[in-house]
Amino acid sequence: MIKLTKFNLLLLLTALSFGLNAKTTPDNDTTTNNTLLAEWTGPYGGVPAFDKIKLSDVKPAFEVAMAENLADYEKIANNKEPASFENTIVAMEKAGEKLQRASVYFRLWSANLSSPEVRQLQMELAPQLSEMQSAISQNKTLFARIKKVYQDSLENPLDPDRQRLVKTTYESFAMNGADLSADKQKRYAEINKELSGLYTQFANNVLHDEEGYITYLNKDQLSGLPDSFVTAAAKVAQTNGHEGQYAVTNTRSSMDPFLTYSDERELRKQVWSNYYSRGDNGDEYDNNAIIKQILKLRRERVELLGYNNYAEWRLQNRMAKTPENAMNLMEAVWPAAIARVKEEVADMQAVADELGHDITIQPWDYRYYAEKVRKKKYDLDSNEVKQYLQLDNLRQAMFYVAGELFNFDFKPVKGGSVPVFHEDVKVWEVTDKTSGDLVGLWYLDPFARPGKRSGAWATSYRSHSTFDGKETVLSSNNSNFIKPAPGEAVLVSWDDAETFFHEFGHALHALSSNVRYPSLNGGVRDYTEFQSQLLERWLSTDQVINKYLKHHKTGEVIPKELIAKIEKASTFNQGFSTTEYLASALMDMKLHLADPEKIDVDKFEKETLAALGMPDELVMRHRTPHFGHVFSGEGYATAYYGYMWADVLTSDAAEAFEEAPGGYYDKAMAAKLVKYLFAPRNAMDPADAYRKFRGRDAKIDALMRDRGFAEPKGKKGQEDNKQEKKAA
Hints:
Layout (H helix, E strand, L loop, with lengths): L5 H10 L42 H20 L7 H10 L2 H16 L3 H22 L2 H16 L4 H16 L6 H31 L2 E3 L9 H13 L6 E3 L3 H10 L3 H12 L11 H17 L5 H5 L8 H32 L11 H13 L3 H5 L4 H16 L1 E5 L13 E7 L5 E10 L9 E6 L10 E9 L12 H18 L13 H11 L6 H7 L11 H9 L5 H20 L7 H12 L15 H4 L10 H18 L7 H12 L7 H9 L6 H6 L8 H13 L1
Parallel strand pairs: 5-7
Antiparallel strand pairs: 1-2, 3-4, 4-5, 6-7
């Protein structure tokens, strides 16, 4: 979702599982017209030529791009001039332009348009990119120059953003073996190469099981399902050659509503089993052996650097700093979460008993009976709420919020002037409302399709920078809503609407950047989710409700009574959502702290959950065999806790807006939000940035209140807090 340093881009590409050895350079005839290498032309500072790309161009493109990238770094390393910020750090910022461009295209293929051919390319290319990465990270001459610039900067500090760029570049190389002896570097490179292939295999196995386990329903098996779901399921079945049936795909966007509404308990169990057994079916696509090997290799690699375990190495430059700090936060919330689950299950079991359903609540029952409890306890019907959550209106609501807080204006790009990679993708021009200056483009790819990874995410095709001329932002949001039948509205749940806002928060983070250097568009993993989590809060503001939450047929604004019910039920089912998330986050950490030599992954998962007191009635949000955040790359490895770390910041920051005179649209607070929390990206230490925004460090109390695990903060408490702020 973000552009990292030029060096860390290589790590990102490895995580996305592709690469190519640059030992040979093809003849010019094979690359002259290669779209993946060509400079981007056209309006908006140039845009990717998504309409001209060919899969056959991938190999020759990466051969050239990686050869030139290596040559760029060699030139920097062998510069005869004394190492300086300009001839070393800035030169690295300029390195590998063709690799950057080629990576955008293939990253897009891998995530949005995957096919057997794409997956085969991933398997072939991943180890070779890893070799190139190692050649750069282990270049001692290059690292000596980086180290010299870093040490000089400690004696004679640079501008704050340059100082941070030097620091993050130095730490990145040091953390990845630049100071190791030759024999240890050799083994380190071998490990990285092997891991890159394992990450690709893990991700492809999960994608196989998502595509291969579709549940088809007949007309007499639709009881309880909303009309919108039935219509969309019929279209998916027809697309897959099952005319007259209804398809439940093996993705969360399809599984979740089916488990919530279907009256067919055995079918719920089947759909639930398909989803939660991805990567764990004991066949050639089973991921358990791969996970064990990944854990062993990660431990061996960090031991080469002198660390005791992977978590200790990974968290040293995160906000948490140590595994202990991350565990302390999670363990502080866990008891309250599982206690709430017991209350929720008791409520659900009572409803089941009242209905004469002779059952004991099982994981495939949780969503179904929780919905019935919601109706009984709060008189709140999720399907009724969906009638007011139309996707196009939600998009307009996001534009409105971006205009009020960031001063951005969004206008649709028409006439095909900006190429797209699929007909579903739409593009908007983003400008500053006051000056009219171009900020960039925003691409939206909303619908699920074969070959597209599940879930929702944001990415950037180009990030903001000014050091070598101003670069406009090309930002994208990708979702997996079920595409409706022609003429039908896309209706989503409240949770999905929050996710839509969340991912748009990542896009705004990219669009609002004011950094000089591309590498500083990155971020600290347990901080970068904060900004997007915070943006979710604007969904339930009065301005959004009154302008955009309208019935998709009548156009009537969602009734105040229904909003009151939503607010009253805001902490409903928090036991479920917090526990399923925390179980995954705790498992991530504990897997990386355990001895990988002795681990049996399935057994470890069961025993660890039992030791934690995991309720029998639900499972981890991401079971280990399909935990792509952690095992299809390294972005969230021992970092999945970061969502909760960020949520502490989110809850605390939200209370700052709630206490402000203008609430969530307070102009002074909005200005501080942009100035300190969005625009600096990674040019400022995140802890310092938050203190500048809030005037102090965040407190966990707000998080506990948000989730209903503590007493709400009363009016007196708010007044006391205002007095404390004035005194401060």
